[in-house]
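Q: What changes when thymidine-5'-diphosphate is included in the input?
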Amino acid sequence: MKRGKFIAFEGGEGAGKSTQARLLAQTLGARGIDCVVTREPGGTSGAEAIRALLLGTDGEGWHARAEALLFAAARSDHVERKILPALDAGQWVICDRFVDSSRAYQGGAGGLGDADVMALHRVGSHGLLPDLTVLIEVSPAIAAARTSSRDGDRPDRIGGRDEAYHARVAAAFAQLADAEPDRFARVDGDGSADQVAEAVFAAIAQLI
Ligand code: TYD
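A: The predicted holo structure follows.
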């Protein structure tokens, strides 16, 4: 059995990752490639429970290291119970966010640093990396319009952090993509969903 490919979508809030994950699965499905679409934090019942702990806005929230550990724990369950079994069964896995989100949000913007985030990832998830990470980049004004039409004035715990935090996230993603050009594809997300989907497909076509 040929192992499936693992594709992650990354980007800031309102980048259109979930829409693009769904559209890519449809396009690949039409070519006979069986895809599992999943998301982080989440994807298994345990990881979805951790998602609620991380993103709920009750209480005082987590300090930076506890937050990184919770993301790593959720990812560990997701990798062990869903991602690796699907890849081993020959399915493709399309994941809405993966470890590069932890590297950008907790490691870069949150100040934990990349080495610690990757150390947690080695312990939790065998250091698994996607075959390709598609970074969808949108201009801040478009991202703000999309998130406010989706979330209104009730963003989640992390989405609701200030502009400076989200600017650091965007800069950290760009830096990761520059450092690993073979694993990252950068896609301009400002266009229509169909235009972006075409660019995404062009970026992943090398894997088929
Ligand atoms: P998501 O539901 O993808 O939010 P959005 O659709 O707004 O992009 O992700 C939830 C939030 O969790 C988002 O603010 C990014 C954050 N996050 C991290 O901080 N670290 C991580 O490792 C992951 C996977 C997500």
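Observations recorded in class: The first strand starts at residue 6 and ends at 10.
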